[in-house]
Amino acid sequence: MQGLIQRVKQAKVEVAGEVVGEISQGILLLLGVEKQDAEQSAQKLLHKVSNYRIFTDEQGKMNLSLKDIKGELLVVSQFTLAADTKKGMRPSFSSAGTPEQANTLYEYFIAEAKKSGLTVAAGRFGADMQVSLCNDGPVTFNLAV
């Protein structure tokens, strides 16, 4: 499972001009599902996203997590994160999970994030989405589990 996280001041996702998910300070998570992923992968990634220390403390050091700052989480499905880009000039998606598997794990991830006490917003799986954000820093990390 791939998770590209961006520390944001705010972010939103729109589908056909309608805002379907929006957050203030927190993390925008682009979530990619691969064939070998299961609920355990989602649990591990959620733990990392929730506790990864990417927010600054009083000394200006990245020492606080999403949970520490009581930030918000915007989860957007991102099929292209599963791409193999090592060869040629066109990405291969042979390692990507099926749409059914990916949607199931995407919905599971969101439900578990909400159960953990996070404030969560989400995109719409499989939709043509437009994502807007103010990347704070910029700070971006690729988390793999």
Task: Describe it.
The structure is a single chain. The protein is α/β, with parallel strands linked by helices and 145 residues long. It contains three helices and eight strands; from the N terminus they run βββαββαβαββ. Strands 1, 2, 3, 6, 7 and 8 form a six-stranded mixed β-sheet that branches. It has a two-stranded antiparallel sheet with strand order 4-5. β6 (72-77), α3 and β7 (119-122) form a beta-alpha-beta unit. The mean pLDDT is 97.
Summarize the structure.
Helix content is 23%, strand content 40%. The chain has 145 residues and is α/β, with parallel strands linked by helices.
List keywords for this structure.
145 residues, two-stranded antiparallel sheet, 3 helices, single chain, alpha/beta
List the helices and strands and how they pair.
Elements: E1 2-15, E2 18-23, E3 26-32, H1 39-51, E4 55-56, E5 62-64, H2 66-69, E6 72-77, H3 99-115, E7 119-122, E8 129-144
Parallel strand pairs: 3-6, 6-7
Antiparallel strand pairs: 1-2, 1-3, 1-8, 4-5
Rg = 15 Å
Strand content: 35-45%
What level of helicity do the residues show?
10-25%
Low-confidence stretches: none
Dominant shape: globular
Describe the main β-sheet briefly. 6 strands, mixed
Order of helices and strands: EEEHEEHEHEE
**Could you give the distance between the termini?**
6 Å
Structural class: alpha/beta
- Can you count the helices? 3
- Could you tell me the mean pLDDT? 97
